[in-house]
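Sat 14:20. Reprocessing the chain from the morning session after the first attempt stalled halfway. Input below, unchanged.
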Amino acid sequence: MISGIHHATFLSGDLARSRVFYEDTLGLRPDSKRPDLGFAGIWYDIAPGQQIHLMQLPDPEAGLQRPAHGGRDRHVALAVRDLSSLQARLDAAGIAYTQSRSGRRAIFCRDPDMNALEFIEVA
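Finished this time. Tokens:
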């Protein structure tokens, strides 16, 4: 019945700050087809038919203690072709990440709003 994931949505308290992470660090480009939804946000195409959506809204979990390792928190897993290249970009941006504890070639980091992201290297 389910054929895939269409999009994952994350809340952003500061859209300009989030854009630096998603565009400059991760290399995503905005989708210009996002309609006016009555609130600030941005859509990123990550693969055909797959997107990340950011919505600028106050964080309903402000002050919540998040686990240090993103793999122990709710997260989205994104496929990457070259994990070493991504690690270099995260290092250059000063963004901390942890290795997957599963033994897979994967890392976890957090965006500026503490949303957990997993990056898994795929051939």
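The longest strand covers residues 41-47.
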